[in-house]
Amino acid sequence: MRRTLASSIGVTCAAALALPLAPSAAAADAGPGRTDTAATRAAVTTGSSTPGSTQSLPLRPLEPDRASGAAAFGLAPRSVRHFSLVGVIWDDPAAELHGRVQVRARAADTGAWSGWQDVETHNADHGADPGTAERTSGRVRGATAPLWVGESDGVEIRVRAETGPDAEPEPEAGSGSTGSTAGEGAEKSASLLPSGMRLELVDPGDGAPPEDGTAESSAENTDQNPDQNPADGSAGPAAEAPRTGVMSAGAAAASAANAPLVPLGATGIPALTRAETEEEYHALRGTEAAGQQANPHIGPRPGIVTRSGWGADESLREQAFVYTDKVGAAFVHHSASGNNYTCAQAPSVIRGIYRYHTESMGWRDVGYNFLVDKCGKIYEGRAGGVANPVLGAHTLGFNSSTMGVAVLGTFDTTDPPAAAVTGVAQLAAWKLGLHGMDPGAKTYLTSDGGNLYAKGTKVRMNVISGHRDGFNTVCPGGKLYDKLGTARSTAAGYQGR
User: Does the pTM exceed 0.85?
Assistant: First the structure.
């Protein structure tokens, strides 16, 4: 009989971990609404030394591009409060931004301005599935990908409408049309840009320090060699020194969802050997394991930094947990947030993405189930328990019965570090193994609606697929996509296949 971990607020312990196949997608999907403000948005994190915040600035019309006459919106260089991550949002989540977004930032420590950096304009391919409560909440907005720029105190941005062959065609001279002036051309190109564009400047704040004064998780303090990551799953954070003292109700509930893997408040879930993982597998499944093979195909559990470990402000997310029925496949993404971060900064990058997804884009929580940094360290994403089938918002149309894993970085033209690919393989071997899935095989998934497959379409996919396999997008970047074959074979090897 399947057991269920109930959604709760104020949980201080959990009697048992929900089984991987237990919680239903019909679990509570409600939470307190949030109201948008045109001014700065800030949320205080319980126990945090420096809370994060978001500055939300409306974009203004700029002079049209002289060469093309394309409409432009943006902001002139200005001083702002400190931030580290930027993005652009707009009113209609279904609208696409047909244009180019570029920003430059002034470093807070040196005062030097960066060069212009492109912000990836995709992100219509991310999000909750059509018809779900998260998608229809009325709070969801369209958005670019977030870009990590490091601690900055000045910003300039420009958004120019697309004028290439895919843009709205202009009348040809001599065709009988009245033609168009540069101003008229700019007006037409402006229609390609969504309404209500705002610049979001996210300060991720400092992660909440352990109340007992112990050292922070190694993810904050250690900049590992991205090419070093043991293949046996032995690397990872220890569960020692959990955060004690007063915990918010949200923090207690998120932590309790990982019981009995680790104590309440643990900043990390330690790696297990293959034998220990199999023992835990049978202990968690109990009598359900009867009749199943004595030695399941499951990879060693890798070390995982918990939400407490990377400093999640649990007041930002919706407080109930929502589950799907199983994890039958994994979709790999890149965060498209750039590669200019150190491994010690990864928790800050994740806090920034989390705040951007919730406060700026209006999602119930961070969209990904897991994140992997360039050093191969694995982080818990959406709350609800790392061993449970938590419903994410990562692959529009294919969030049910899957998990989303984002590698921090942009891999269109840059090769992902070998350690990051190994981290994806380790995670997939363990998590997919909980559900009896072979990471080197194929499976059938049913679309909930997207731009590649209509709702109800059954699609044969790799058990480890790229985002672009389920949606017309460049994600996870061509270079990372090319490494998925390696991830599949490596993960299958970890499972002993």
Answer: no
